[in-house]
Amino acid sequence: MEEYKDRLYGQFALIGRALSSPKRLEILELLSQGERSVEDLAHETESSVSNVSQHLQNLRAARLVEARKDGLYVRYRLADEAVGAFWRSLQSLAIDRSAEAREIVSTFIDQRDQFEPVGYDELLARAEKGDVVVLDVRSGPEYAAGHIPNAQSIPLNELADRLGELPGDCEIVAYCRGTYCLLSVDAVLLLRQNGLTARRLAGGLPQWRAEGFPVVGGEKNNGADTPHNNEVLR
């Protein structure tokens, strides 16, 4: 009996150890948007390539991520949608159990944007009628890996220079990587400062997909087969 418990709980603990680093959780968040190279992840997480490679090896050991070879190149992705669902559940549990986590969300999201976010059903209905502009403010590769139908792609770091591409007589609904991502919050504030009517989606692309709403591009789960620029195998 003890051998059974030790071996089984040891495998459970392997998952826990893999998730013990904030940087690895950030990597999971990025991979939930779609496939990434080591260099992409290093850039997004402001880390060195060697550190990201080590984090990925830990996540692979726990079978949370997989790597796909493309000749001399490699791309990483979530192992499957179950990992994405687990990651979203972990976020919800942390918010539910941690007063500090709730305070952080309140400070960086709720207090900065006090308008009620747009729900999924509302956005789909309004988008089908054409009375709202859906704006994806993630990076170009994330958009290519999967996006909400008819969404316009303008990454946040380009938004200030591309405001002229957006209509001034229609509400804009911005979305990004997830419920706790700040990209859409920053985008909405910038749009409002420039006289545009804007709100953000209640969640991001992973939550939209998980609820069964349509997604354009990429695979059903995580866009793992979406092509990207070649990166050297690490």
Give a structural overview.
It is a single chain. The strands form two sheets. Strands 4-3-5-6 form a four-stranded parallel β-sheet. A two-stranded antiparallel sheet has the order 1-2. The chain is an alpha/beta fold and 234 residues long. The termini are far apart. Helix content is 49%, strand content 12%. The chain has two domains: 2-79, Orthogonal Bundle (Arc Repressor Mutant, subunit A); 102-210, Rhodanese-like domain (Oxidized Rhodanese, domain 1), CATH 3.40.250. The longest helix has 17 residues, at 2-18. The protein has helices at residues 2-18, 22-31, 38-45, 49-61, 81-97, 99-110, 120-129, 140-145, 156-159, 183-193, 205-210; strands at 65-70, 73-78, 132-136, 152-153, 171-175, 198-200.
What integer value in Å does the Rg equal? 19 Å
User: Structural class, please?
Assistant: alpha/beta
- The CATH H-level superfamily of the largest domain is Rhodanese-like domain
What fraction strand? 5-15%
Mean pLDDT figure: 91
Continuous helix count:
11
Oligomeric state of the chains? Answer: single chain
CATH topology of the largest domain: Oxidized Rhodanese, domain 1
Overall tally of domains: 2
**What is the global morphology?**
globular
Strand order of the largest sheet: 4-3-5-6
CATH class of the largest domain: Alpha Beta
Biggest sheet statistics: 4 strands, parallel
Low-confidence stretches: 220-234
N-end to C-end Cα span: 42 Å
- Give the ordered list of helices and strands: HHHHEEHHHEHEHEHEH
Q: What is the CATH architecture annotation of the largest domain?
A: 3-Layer(aba) Sandwich
Give the number of DSSP strands: 6
Which percent bin holds the helix content?
40-55%
